[in-house]
Design a protein that fits this description.
The protein is mainly alpha-helical and about 475 residues long. The protein has 18 helices and no strands. Its main location: membrane. Keywords: Cell membrane, Membrane, Transmembrane, Transmembrane helix, Transport.
Amino acid sequence: MTAEEAGRGAQPQVPTEDSSRTERPDRTKTVPPGSADRPGRQPAPAETGWGNFVAEDQAGPGDPAPESERQPLGPPFWTLWTASGFSNLADGVLKVALPLIALRFTDSPTLIAGLAIALSLPWLIFALPAGALADRGDRRRIMLMANTARAALLLALVAALLSVAEPIWALYLVAFAIGCSETAYDTSAQSILPQVVPRPVLSRANGRLFAVELTANQFIGPPLGGALVVAGATLALTVPAALWVCAVGALLFVRGSFRVERTSSTSMRADIAEGLRFLWSRPLLRTLGAMVGGFNFATSAAFTVFVLFAVGPGSAMKLSEPGFGLLLTSIAVGSLLGSLVAEGIEKRLGRSRSLAVAILASVPLVGIPAVTADPVLVGLAFFLGGMAIAVWNVVSVSLRQRITPDRLLGRVNSAYRLLAWGTMPAGAAAGGVLAQYFGLTTVFAAMGILSLALLLGMRVVTEPAIEAAERDVEGA
């Protein structure tokens, strides 16, 4: 339930794309940012800085979409989409299968929780190097290697479960290694997209990717993982390994080189520092990152203690465990819908207003329990909040991809995600302390107010500022 890449989601049917274009650009060749033959770009006229997308289409402020209505996403994208579906289905299976398998060897809550830590810790310690790696190497090859490594690690874990007397530590080691591979894969996957599709269709492409990620990771993967564990731990680990192999097979059909051109040889440390400087020096990126960090702080605080508000006869909502799970599903359903309609909302409202509306619509997600315990109203608020998060993700991620040079995109993505996710542990701690001393209602009210206050960031994230940032990249 984070605002950045919320969830990763049964695969919708692939829409029919009109691929009958003449002189279709080669999207598999990476060229320096701003060059005339960059996929989906035209040389920028001095008057506009936004090329023919403004001059020919007379697009309104913040609307790069008219050109996108005529451009198909293309076979390379749908191959990448297929690989994403397989990969995220494996993720969804594993996030349920690993703790259930661990329960066969320990009943310690601390040891069980340690698996989640082992999977997520690499994002805190490996995110920045993963971003630098994505800008140094071939991004498709990094994705291939990461998925191959994850499949091999699961097969090694199967062997350990069959031969080691106390395999709980093997679970930890494999979970951590898979987390490292996931960090490399996700960073490169998000950075490769502008090399696969023209930039005017990034919002549509991101919406389709978020939809399949969310569906696979949250709807199909978890129940499938639980069913596979019942059938046997070996099967529960072999299936996601096979899914990652299928993802590798799909990626092999994405032809071309996706290595970003480098003008000089620099150290990894210098590369990381350059990415951080770029993020910090751009008011738009800096503000968006701070807003995401603030919202993730609020959601982490609220949902850390929400179970106390919702579950059990002594709680405010008096839900059963299955009812609680059904309630949370409303967030995922809203997110799925939001990922599919985000491009249309962006076209109608523009980037800045779309982000502002998403913030307003997400406030009830954390604030509604402060005013009502009615399950229907809370469920509706969760649905609306999930939809808002998805719209925010599609619009903001697409914007970040548009205003960041390709040579820096991996590092900026990783630094941004570190900033976005780094506030979550602090939010969880704050939620617990506030609930302990001031009560649950205080937590939800305070986090709702904090979420609403994020609208102040929209004083920086304006349409003129977005257009200026796009012109800067065009001229880079």
